[in-house]
Write a structure and sequence with these properties.
Layout: E1 17-18, H1 52-60, E2 79-85, E3 87-92, E4 96-105, H2 112-123, E5 135-137, E6 142-145, E7 154-159, E8 168-181, H3 183-189, H4 200-211, H5 213-218, E9 220-222, E10 229-232, E11 241-244, E12 247-260, E13 263-276, H6 281-291, E14 305-308, E15 315-318, E16 321-326, E17 331-334, E18 339-342, H7 343-350, E19 363-368, E20 374-376, H8 395-405, H9 409-424, H10 433-438, E21 440-442, E22 447-453, E23 459-461, E24 464-465, E25 486-487, E26 490-496, H11 510-524, E27 527-528, E28 535-539, H12 549-563, E29 572-576, H13 582-596, E30 599-603, H14 605-608, H15 614-628, E31 635-636, H16 638-648, E32 652-660, E33 672-678, E34 689-694, H17 709-723, E35 731-737, H18 744-762, E36 774-781, E37 788-790, E38 806-808, E39 818-823, E40 835-842, H19 848-858, H20 873-888, H21 890-893, H22 916-930
Parallel strand pairs: 25-27, 26-28, 26-29, 29-30, 32-35, 35-36
Antiparallel strand pairs: 1-13, 2-22, 2-37, 3-13, 3-21, 4-6, 4-8, 5-6, 7-8, 9-10, 10-12, 11-12, 12-13, 14-15, 16-19, 17-18, 19-20, 22-38, 23-24, 23-31, 32-33, 33-34, 36-40, 38-39, 39-40
Length: about 950
């Protein structure tokens, strides 16, 4: 039966590829060798920044509470450097913008797809002639004007009927919502404290709407607000990027407006995204099946618009789902015929002149579910141009798109300044009338700002400093873990499916392979009492349903028999995987983490058997294993450790917090999953996790909130107390992942902060003073598009990136926020992306130097790597824990059987909305699968790493 394919765990790439892997005019790593961008143009620091220190000195004299602390003096630690950034100075006239809401009548007749058509008719209407060229709109519901429109003001236009429908009169009413004095935006950028609490986003989005007029009309937009990207087929039409599976990639640009000190900036960054190839839908499905073991890819068709003409007129539909059945196999009661017929029989009768060729080898598509279902054969549908692909890409497609997206930084910078200006309509030759009317001008130059390179700490192992140390990376070879774990008993699970590396437990090459692994682990300091483990075989059926139900059942039976009878039970199970099958991987983790309570470590034998890379491969596995066993992989050199403990982290617990939600591949009603990790040792290396399942948010404001945060923080404090001789931490630093700027107050300060403080009361000993540690909350932002380019070869890595330790805290941030950009890691390819850190709450009273260098040093303490990481470990580990929780609910969270979920904003337009009953059934199924969460045997360990 036709169905949908699966993506292995390493291919969870989706949507647009941007930022660190921006596009370039040439495939691969760009043209020639890496070089300094604009090397012939002197990199002179922006004049506006000469007064920035004076502003910060003024802030220091202002009484400010812990909420949204004003930025302290900029950091001074490290080597001073100068950088270019992809923030382009944007100037505008300080005039009044009249901000209108557009109301369409009749409402039901004007879907989101038709609003742009209606507005085009409005702009051509005689009553609107006086305002053309003096307005800007988003093609949907917001319009800005430099002149006040009449009040009331309504324009009626005739919208042509689609299909067999008659033309319709549409009324558009212009309702004034705000008069925006844009001088307020200038005062805000100047750091005027009287403007600190205004809703700045209202002004910023207005300026952004004006600058995006050309791109909106000439490109395909993906995303909204601060995540808007515009893609252009013409950028790649001379050399199309074919992804296979009926897909191709388009190049484009991210574009948004940002307030910085004394200057508004336009942030531009290259991007690349998958699109459907315009063709017959049946041809596209066959192409997808060729890549997915004869199945249609699980996300194929999601949000895809198709056109049909078989009824004698052209009609546009939005695919709501791809069925698992064909035209011959799908039946319904046909009132006209008075009997139950197949879809194939219906079309043969109703449209005898259009014989179907694929009635039993392609699935049907559902284009309407209610009030009655409409199923159409794929061969009767055509895919129009400009349709983005919103699903997961398989491994091959991901590789192709990344190969085309990865270029040297200077290539991306040139792309921004040349093609970016042209296609976004920012150059003098493409400047839109709206930008002229609103007095907006984007300068064709990158802002030049000061940065620093922070001094790196040195990793320390039991046997000494890491060899071959370079800032950001080192070699683990011949080192011993600081504290090695102990393995009294273990087992090997050999998954067999098709032709694999090992034929079975008796394979002559298997024991030597295992001996080599044990030997490296022992040399690294892990103590193995048993060196000849039992080898369990699980022969997996190759042909199975798409959830691999029988394969997972076989694994469960094999493991249960051994784990429940072995004495002592295995401390961990080494799993030799058959291939990169995400369903098998997720099922295995669910069985061992939740049902059996035993650690698992996986290997791909095909990769591990390579003699040249075997040592490194085994070493990476050993890093994970030692942490699962409760060991300590490495610490920092004595000077760095002393500074961390005495200056920043004395008697401190570090907390990482993250939430993951239902995605486009999740069933409607899928829960959100929250994770908290917290350090329990003075080395800041051990972070046990607690995971919670929570109901999906009912609205955007509550979506990111961790519902059971008080209980989760209480549990972490109690564990810390247990591991530290009854002592609680004096300071707590929370690194919060996954939030946008608009969520800081509503999510953190209004909801999560009170929950955290309630946990302090929960662990207070009766009769003792209230437990009240000082608390700081820092948001970690990875989803941004700010990039930095070196201006000197001595400050440039071999691939053209900035060096690890690069930090920027002046000239690129909000004038009222304590924030900085830190690149702790080595940029391996493309343009390296720093992490943005924003201090939301600060009772500790950090200086810039202490928080910046402390965060930088922590990035060298990620336990499963021999390199500094891009995201501070508490936040990174919380993200990993969320992914493990997602794997436990794989058949719900990653199934591909999505009905549009209203609460997650996926039910707009013509998309089908799941009923409350359907969503409740999914949530109930998830709750049953979740049970008690992680097994008690693993609760105090880093099982998720």
């Amino acid at each position: 039966m036709p169905g949908r394919g699966l993506a292995p765990p390493s291919t969870r790439a989706r949507g647009q590829f941007d930022s660190g892997r921006g596009p370039g005019p040439m495939r691969g790593r760009g043209r020639g060798a890496p070089q300094v961008f604009a090397a012939d143009v002197p990199a002179v620091e922006d004049e506006r920044l000469a007064s920035h220190d004076t502003l910060l000195e003024g802030f220091a004299a202002v009484e400010s509470g812990p909420e949204f602390p004003l930025p302290p003096a900029s950091g001074t630690k490290g080597i001073n450097i100068t950088l270019r950034t992809n923030l382009l100075p944007t100037n505008f006239d300080a005039k009044t913008y009249f901000d209108y809401e557009l109301k369409f009548q009749p409402t039901k007749a004007v879907t989101a797809d038709r609003k742009a058509k209606v507005l085009a008719l409005v702009e051509a209407h005689a009553d609107f002639a006086n305002y053309n060229g003096r307005v800007a709109h988003d093609g949907s519901q917001r319009l800005l004007s430099v002149a006040r429109l009449p009040d009331p003001f309504t324009i009626n236009v005739e919208l042509g009927g689609e299909g067999n429908r008659e033309p319709q009169i549409i009324s558009v009413e212009f309702v004034l919502k705000h008069e925006l004095d844009m001088g307020m935006l200038r005062r805000y950028a100047d750091g005027d404290l009287e403007c600190r609490d205004i809703d700045i986003q209202l002004y910023v989005s207005a300026l952004q709407l004006v600058t995006q007029q050309h791109a909106r009309k000439n490109g395909t937009r993906i995303g909204r607000d601060t995540q808007t990207r515009f893609f252009f087929r013409s950028l790649t039409e001379q050399s199309p990027i074919m992804l296979g599976g009926g897909l191709e990639a388009w190049r484009g640009f991210f574009m948004s407006i940002r307030p910085t000190y004394e200057q508004m900036m336009t942030n531009i960054n290259p991007g690349i995204a998958p699109f459907y190839i315009p063709r017959n839908l049946a041809e596209a499905m066959f192409a997808s099946m060729q890549q997915n073991r004869g199945l249609v890819a699980p996300d194929f068709g999601r949000k895809l618009k198709v056109i049909t003409t078989y009824q004698g007129y052209e009609k546009t539909w939005t695919i709501q789902k791809v069925l698992d059945t064909t035209a011959q196999m799908t039946t319904f009661y046909h009132r006209g015929m008075g009997k139950t017929v197949s879809v194939a029989e219906h079309f043969a009768s109703a449209f005898p002149n259009i014989p179907l060729q694929h009635t039993n080898d392609l699935p049907l598509v559902c284009v309407q579910e209610k009030p009655s279902a409409i199923h159409i054969p794929a061969e009767l549908c055509a895919i129009p141009p400009g349709q983005p692909y919103f699903g997961q890409l398989n491994g091959d497609a991901t590789t192709v798109i990344l190969n085309h997206a990865t270029n040297f930084p200077h290539v991306n910078a040139e792309m921004i300044m040349n093609e970016g200006f042209q296609y976004l309509g920012l150059g003098e030759d493409t400047n839109t009338p709206a930008m002229d009317a609103f007095g907006v001008h984007v300068e064709r130059k990158m802002s030049v700002v000061p940065g620093r390179i922070l001094p790196p700490p040195t990793p320390q192992y039991k046997s000494g400093s890491a060899p071959s140390f370079q800032p950001g990376t080192w070699n683990f070879a011949r080192m011993q873990f600081q504290v090695g774990g102990r393995v009294p008993n273990w087992a090997v699970l050999l998954l067999l499916q098709g032709k694999g590396t090992f034929t079975g437990a008796s394979d002559a090459s298997l024991r030597p392979f295992l001996d080599a692994f044990v030997s490296l682990c022992k040399k690294s300091g892990i103590g193995f009492t048993a060196t000849s483990p039992p080898i369990l075989e699980a022969r997996l059926p190759f042909s199975d349903d798409r959830h691999r139900t029988e394969a997972i059942k076989t694994i469960r039976t094999t493991l249960e028999t051994h784990v429940k009878t072995a004495r002592p039970p295995p401390k961990f199970i080494l799993v030799l995987l058959a291939d990169e099958d995400s369903r098998v991987y997720c099922g295995l983790k669910r069985i061992c983490d939740m049902e059996l309570g035993v650690h698992t470590v996986g290997m791909q034998p095909s990769k591990a058997m390579n003699p040249k890379g075997q040592g490194a491969y085994f070493g990476n596995v050993a890093l994970k294993l030692n942490m699962k066993l409760g060991g300590v992989n490495h610490v920092l050199d004595a000077v760095s450790t002393r500074w961390l403990k005495d200056t920043m982290l004395k008697d401190t617990m570090l907390i990482g917090l993250d939430v993951t939600h239902a995605s486009m591949s999740s069933k409607a009603g899928s829960p959100s999953l929250a994770a908290i990790v917290a350090s329990i040792d003075n080395n800041f290396s051990n972070y046990p996790a607690e995971l919670r399942m929570q109901r999906p948010a009912e609205n955007k404001e509550s979506k990111e909130v961790v519902a059971d945060l008080t209980d989760m923080v209480t549990g972490r404090l109690q564990l810390y107390k247990q591991k530290n001789k009854g002592k609680l931490p004096a300071k707590i630093i929370v690194y919060r992942d996954g939030l946008g700027d608009s969520q800081y107050r509503q999510t953190i300060l209004d909801r999560e902060l009170p929950s955290i403080k309630a946990a302090f009361g929960a662990v207070t000993t009766p009769g003792s003073p209230a437990y009240a540690p000082t608390l700081t909350i820092v948001v970690c932002v990875k989803r941004h598009n700010t990039r930095f380019y070196p201006t000197e070869t001595e400050h440039m890595s071999p691939n053209g990136n900035t060096l690890p330790g690069t930090i920027v805290d002046k000239g690129v941030g909000n004038p009222f926020l304590f924030e900085f950009y830190l690149q702790a890691h080595v940029g391996l390819q493309g343009t390296v992306k720093p992490t943005r850190y924003v201090v939301i709450y600060d009772e500790i009273g950090f200086t810039s130097n202490d928080l910046q260098q402390g965060t930088h040093m922590l990035c060298y303490l990620f336990p499963r790597a021999t390199k500094a990481v891009s995201l501070v470990p508490p936040a990174y580990l919380a993200d990993l824990a969320c992914e493990r929780a997602r794997a436990w609910l794989d058949t719900i969270m990653n199934t591909g059987d999505q009905l549009a979920d209203v609460s997650s904003g996926q039910g707009k337009g013509k998309r089908m909305r799941a009923t409350e009953e359907e969503k409740a059934q999914v949530l109930d199924e998830a709750m049953k699968m979740w049970g008690g969460g992680v097994h008690p045997n693993l609760g105090d360990s880093m099982f998720y790493i």
